[in-house]
Amino acid sequence: MADLSRLAHGPFLVIGRAGMDLYADPPGTRLEEAMQFTAALGGSSANIAAGLCRLGRQAALVTRVSDDAVGRYCLNQLDFYGIDRRHVRHQGGEARNSLAVVESRLENTQSVIYRNGAADFEMTEDDIAALPYDSAAALVTTGTVLAAEPSRSATFAAFERARAAGLPLVFDVDYRPYSWASAEEAARVYARAGALCDIVVGNDVEFGFMAGDPAQGLEKARDLLRHGVQVVVYKMGEHGAITLTATGETRSGIFPTRALKPTGAGDSFMAAFLAALADGRRVPEAVIRGSAAAAIVVARVGCAPAMPDTETLDTFLARTRMKEA
Q1: How far apart are alpha carbons 52 and 56 in whole angstroms?
Q2: Cβ(263)–Cβ(303) under 8 Å?
Q3: Strand intervals (E) in 26-180
Q4: Phi, psi (deg, nearest 5) at residue 62
Q5: Domain covering 4-18+44-95+120-319, topology
Q6: Which residues fall within 8 angstroms of residue 57, CB to CB, at 6 or more apart?
Q7: How far apart are CA 99 and CA 68, in angstroms?
Q8: What backbone phi and psi angles, to 5 degrees, belong to 10?
Q9: Successive 10-residue mean pLDDT values, the chain, 325 residues
Q10: Residue 204: its pLDDT value, please?
Q11: 23 near 38, Cβ under 8 Å?
């Protein structure tokens, strides 16, 4: 069991994809009617790293990007957000970066993801061998990185090295069915990953998926806690969240907001939650700050560019009261 006080020291190592997001512009436009788009950094891991940097923490991304203009766009965006990209490698050949074409609208929101021949899935154990495990704050990953080889084996190898160094492991379930060969494979791999980690964050649907029964998601979260996970955050959308630790279960609500889109909430929650823990805040307060960041991001265009800085987050919290779920 890792010492979570390490979260306050060193950079967060975030494993997983960086991509390009194209948002139909202006907000409210349907994709099939769009004449122009706004580009932004995308990919759940890159978004989390951007959110951490916006909140004053250090973050390094570990991934591969395509050796083309889109890959270079992603690298430029990592620089823009202050994300350390020394552990990002180019992948040549026909590999391509993820591309998401998205609407900024609430009803029947369309998000079309292109992941064929994804460059980030080409990450190998060579990519993770020399990471600074001894001086990092935590190793953070999202479930998507586990969907294919050799990225899956590389990530589990990183888990082993991190555990040997006493480095906290953080897992965002982030289940994306289109990335997996089968639901059965995904459930098996997620169960293995969750059991190795110190902090696991997901929504009720994802935990239900891991349990093999939508009605057993909360019991799966409890089971993870019984088997060594230190903190489990079980998110329930508009019904708030249940946070599970060794001292018990805490229920929290949501913040009212004028949502523009449903995307980006999970990545912003994780970034603000981890930043709060790194700042020495207790778990319940970290969950509140994560929830506030999620409310801010869904009210803005994009994911990475919508991430709040500390002043914006503090101002929002001072002016907005959480609604009980």
Answers
A1: 7
A2: yes
A3: 36-42, 59-66, 88-91, 98-102, 111-114, 138-142, 169-172
A4: -120, 110
A5: UDP-N-acetylmuramoyl-L-alanine:D-glutamate ligase (3.40.1190)
A6: 11, 12, 137, 274, 275, 278
A7: 13
A8: 85, 180
A9: 94 97 96 97 97 98 97 98 98 95 92 93 97 98 96 98 98 92 92 96 94 93 96 95 96 94 95 98 98 97 97 98 86
A10: 94
A11: yes
Name residue, tokens 């059965």: 184
Helix (H) or strand (E) holding 147: none
**Other Cβ atoms within 10 Å of 18 Cβ, number:** 32
Q: Which residues in the chain belong to E strands, given as ranges?
A: 12-15, 19-25, 36-42, 59-66, 88-91, 98-102, 111-114, 138-142, 169-172, 199-203, 231-235, 241-245, 248-252
List Cα–Cα distances, 19 to 40, 62, 97, 100, 132, in angstroms: 9, 13, 6, 8, 24
Residue extents of the structural domains in the chain: 4-18+44-95+120-319
> What pLDDT shows up at residue 11?
97
Query: Which residue reads 């329930």 in tokens?
Result: 236
CA distance 129 to 137: 17
